[in-house]
Design goal:
globular, single chain
């Protein structure tokens, strides 16, 4: 079996947008399972209808005053933050637009490693599972093992704390496998007591069940998101959304928001709904965003701005509930093209 490293969301067709209009990019050349997986995802059309199960194009005049106000606040960030914003010439090169995503889920899990630390945990506890156990069909019993065999991408991250370091894993898989994989990562599973006994798990195991619905930041050469390189920074932001998701998307993907993300060092973002069964509470429908940065320091700085509610995040805080952020450094991003869902 061959294995390559690439971004966790390799399947979908990606697009760029001008004035909130989504336009498809040319599909990259792929072979075997990767090509079939790409065909399985419906291309994004410039004038999608609701019946297509694709977010419809947002015409400029249909954006609400509330969204316009939020977008203006994001634009005003250049006057109130220490971020370095692009010049007009540089602004032409920043990430813009977004692509709707559908057809797969992400199970995101994190825990503390006690005195072992992330390096030993990855080498001695997780890497053997990644290299063999994941697709052996044996982990967790017949049903759970069959679900793990459908995983086609795994991203591993570390928290970089000086003591009791956090490790996190994002498993990308078909929706049909979500419940069984999430059940395995239930903290009540006796397996996790083994981890505590062996010293690589301390405290609770936290599990999110999510469904990606958009991504920002396609690689123009491939049409896919850029690779999450080892050492990249990641902020996982979870929050209840007090406004409708379809009202939030235009503000999140607006030109002013693009400038803010670029100034922070973010080169790609993936937004997902947080589904029932996740270990997260909010009175509102929740969203989780994976922001990927050039380095870990940038992720920490951006999270600190949000937590301190510095402008423009004081206004953003008004439309969100129970914000929770975790910052990480990427250890590995492994793609398994032979396990891509087939058309």
């Amino acid at each position: 079996k061959t294995r390559s490293s690439s971004h966790l969301l390799l399947r979908p067709m990606f697009a760029t947008a001008q004035s909130l209009r989504v336009t498809p990019l040319a599909a990259p050349k792929r072979v075997g399972g990767a090509r079939r997986a790409a065909r399985a995802v419906r291309p994004v059309r410039a004038h999608a209808k609701k019946a297509d199960d694709v977010e419809p194009t947002m015409e400029p005049l249909s954006v609400s005053r509330r969204v316009l106000g939020l977008s203006s606040v994001l634009g005003a960030a250049s006057l109130t933050t220490d971020l370095v914003f692009p010049t007009p010439a540089e602004a032409k090169k920043i990430v813009s637009g977004y692509t709707p995503l559908e057809g797969f889920d992400v199970t995101y899990v994190f825990h503390k490693t006690g005195t072992m630390g992330a390096d030993d945990w990855y080498k001695n506890a997780f890497k053997p599972f990644l290299d063999g156990g994941l697709h052996s069909g044996e982990v967790g019993g017949p049903e759970t093992g069959a679900a793990f065999k459908t995983v086609f991408n795994v991203v591993v991250m570390r928290g970089r704390e000086t003591e009791n370091e956090t490790v996190a894993v994002a498993f990308v898989h078909p929706k049909a496998s979500t419940d069984l994989i999430a059940k395995f990562f239930d903290d009540k599973n006796p397996f996790w007591q083994t981890g505590r006994d062996e010293g690589w798990l301390l405290g609770p195991l936290t599990n999110f069940k999510t469904t990606p619905f958009l991504a920002r930041g396609a690689d123009p050469k491939t049409g896919y998101p850029p690779q999450w390189k080892k050492g990249s920074g990641v902020l996982v932001a979870s929050f209840g959304l007090k406004i409708d998701k379809n009202e939030w998307i235009p503000a999140f993907t607006s030109p002013d928001s693009d400038k803010l993300h670029d100034a922070a060092g973010i080169y790609t973002s993936v937004a997902s709904t947080v589904n029932k069964g996740s270990e997260y509470d909010s009175a509102f429908k929740a969203v989780q965003v994976f922001h990927t940065f050039k380095n870990f320091k940038q992720a920490v700085a951006f999270d600190a701005m949000i937590q301190a509610k510095q402008p423009p995040f004081d206004a953003v805080a008004e439309i969100t509930d129970n914000f929770q952020g975790q910052t990480y450094e990427v250890i590995s991003d492994t793609n398994f093209p032979e396990y891509f869902p087939q058309a």
